[in-house]
Amino acid sequence: MDTPLLTPRPVPSVQAMKTACSSCNLRELCLPVALQDNELERLDSLVAQRLAVPRGETLYRARDPFRSLYAVRSGFFKTLVTTADGREQVTGFLMAGELLGFDGIGTDRYSCDTVALEDSQVCVIPFEQLEALSRDFLPLQRQFHRIMSREIVRDHGLILLLGSMRAEERLAAFLLNLTQRLASRGFSSTELVLRMTREEIGSYLGLKLETVSRAFSKLQDQGLLAVRHRQVRVVDPAGLRRLVDTLC
Amino acid sequence: MDTPLLTPRPVPSVQAMKTACSSCNLRELCLPVALQDNELERLDSLVAQRLAVPRGETLYRARDPFRSLYAVRSGFFKTLVTTADGREQVTGFLMAGELLGFDGIGTDRYSCDTVALEDSQVCVIPFEQLEALSRDFLPLQRQFHRIMSREIVRDHGLILLLGSMRAEERLAAFLLNLTQRLASRGFSSTELVLRMTREEIGSYLGLKLETVSRAFSKLQDQGLLAVRHRQVRVVDPAGLRRLVDTLC
DNA sequence: CGCGAGCTTGATGCCGATCAATGCATGTGG
DNA sequence: CCACATGCATTGATCGGCATCAAGCTCGCG
């Protein structure tokens, strides 16, 4: 990590690109899905910049002018919306290969804050250029629309969770979602290290941190999990799944 | 309204287009925003079909193959996701000029159900053709992306509501949102007729219908509303706004 | 070793769910 | 035109889950 500049608003440090989309090991999860070699080259020339975002730093804030989407290259982020009176609601957690910034397209300003939960790197995708390139490359246009649509479907899932599930079910659904995404990145689907605090989980799930902690203990007592601080082992994935499917 | 066909799955009746996007009085709210005359003509030729959807009928269901977006031409819709065990969560209410179907793009199948709450008409927007046309017309591409992004921002607002507001605040926020959208369509911003039941409002807001009813009564007792069944008059818009802004 | 951030656990209280009864408007058939 | 049924809304009584308040606990770190 480069040392962050000493400005009032810490700016993530810019890095020259070492690797390109065409050689990125996340290309099957990210924007380049289904692109031909020549299309990948053009995408490479578009995604020419990478940013390092140290743990705890903000990538962009609500009301910042929108210019780019970002692809998480490595690390982990949370997105959050802030109310007039200063309270926060986490709206998402993002891992490698996932895209950030769709909230900015509609009004030319971002509508949420994005914070790195560990030292992270993102690829910068200038949006006007992406739009231009997607006019030439049908598969790129298609993939972009798909990703944005899935973001909507994902949000509907969270709305469903917040509207109709109880504490333990919420936590179970959350953990299943995390393990699934980790598994599709080649990580274990039973062993995970949480990148966020109980409070951040609670904010995401519409619960207080104490309730999250109690829910962890309950699931452990039921023999579904083994929890030690941020180390979580899923002992009974089917049981966890049953808990979610039954009431949800 | 044509009489619905007597099939196991009632199909909304198809109507020939009488009017086009170029002469639609919703064009400032819908997809045609900022299009030139020649662009509007091309859009007209794309949006060649209209469907009548009688009250209570479904426009599309989760898992139906995705082919089109729909623009609400007249009437009122709800969208809802259904859990494995059959419970429903309303994820949105849509009025004239708003678009339906973004949830289907990501997987080529819709992910929610869409039901008309009153006799309605929608314009059919074949998606592949829309994608093709948006490759030629930059303003159309831009507008399409904007609308989809706003859908995401809207969902974040609902997530915030579900995660951190209490019953009366949820209802206040809901009513303010409705009146705002009605006002931008030229309707009164203080007088409205609810198109949905207390139960549907409750499902949307993550509350039970009794709680919704009590919240209506409370807001009325506080002199903010005058409620008579589905007739609602906003007596004190600023007070309602204060209720939402204070805790949210 | 001592401090602090984050986590766990217990005791209590409140908001909204649940259960239940009543009210009100619309529609239908006698 | 009235009797009755039906769907939706309101209101009350009670219950339960989560929030709140309050200690302790654990671990990393200076």
Top keywords for this entry?
four-stranded antiparallel beta sheet, DNA-binding, 2 domains, alpha+beta, Jelly Rolls, Arc Repressor Mutant, subunit A, 248 residues, homodimer
Can you walk me through this structure?
2 copies of one chain form a homodimer. Chain A is an alpha+beta fold and 248 residues long. Chain A folds into 2 domains: 13-160, Sandwich (Jelly Rolls), CATH 2.60.120.10; 165-247, Winged helix-like DNA-binding domain superfamily/Winged helix DNA-binding domain (Arc Repressor Mutant, subunit A, Orthogonal Bundle), CATH 1.10.10. Helices cover 39% and strands 23% of the residues of chain A. Chain A has 7 helices and 12 strands. Chain A has helices at residues 37-46, 127-136, 138-164, 167-183, 198-205, 209-221, 237-247, and strands spanning 13-16, 49-53, 58-60, 68-74, 76-82, 88-95, 99-100, 113-116, 120-126, 191-193, 225-228, 231-234. In chain A, the strands form 3 sheets. A 5-stranded antiparallel beta sheet of chain A has the order 1-2-9-4-7. In chain A, β5 (76-82) and β6 (88-95) form a beta hairpin. In chain A, α4 crosses α7 (237-247) and α5 (198-205) packs across α6. Chain A is globular, with a radius of gyration of 19 Å. Chain A starts with 12 loop residues before the first strand and ends with a helix. The interface between A and B is large, with 48 and 48 residues. The structure holds a DNA duplex (30 and 30 nucleotides).
